[in-house]
Amino acid sequence: MQIEIDFEVWQALTARLQNERDNYNEAIRRLLNLPATEVSPGFGEIDTPGLPDTLPLPGGSTVSGAWFSNVFFPDGTFFRATYKGRTHRAQIRGSQWIDEFGNIRTSPSDAASAISRTNVNGWRFWYVRRPIDEDWVRMDALKS
């Protein structure tokens, strides 16, 4: 089941996430005063077992994010794609790929296939803008 929401509602729900493992379902459950459910594992744990969901930075700090095909996408990375005239959006938050409906997706291709309802190469489907980027680039340009 999917519930359609607009981008502004998605942003407001995103702001209500409390930690890395929180998800949109739990945020909505809190708003509706419903009991919590078991939270899904982090996206990095699903997609690439063995790779950490944090990346060390100079000075000893770390940044959380998700790995796909050995490419790290830090929390705060945005994705967009246009399919049949409609723009779709997603974000890495809490080391998970969260689509515009609050669903956790296991890979770029999983997210693209959920939109197109067919097998799709997500690396060619999505454009990405990481927190360090000024412009959007197609995901496959980041693969080495």
How do the strands of the widest beta sheet line up side by side?
7-6-5-4-8-9
Distance between the termini: 36 Å
- Please provide the ordered H/E string of secondary-structure elements: HHHEEEEEEEHHEE
What average pLDDT do the residues reach? 80
Shape: globular
* SS-derived structural category: alpha+beta
User: Would you identify the regions where 5 or more consecutive residues have pLDDT less than 50?
Assistant: 39-49
Count of helical regions: 5
| DSSP E strands, number | 9
The amount of beta strand, in percent, is: 25-35%
Percent in helix: 10-25%
Largest sheet: 6 strands, antiparallel
Spatial extent as radius of gyration: 15 Å
Output the keywords.
5 helices, globular, 144 residues, 6-stranded antiparallel sheet, alpha+beta, 3-stranded antiparallel sheet
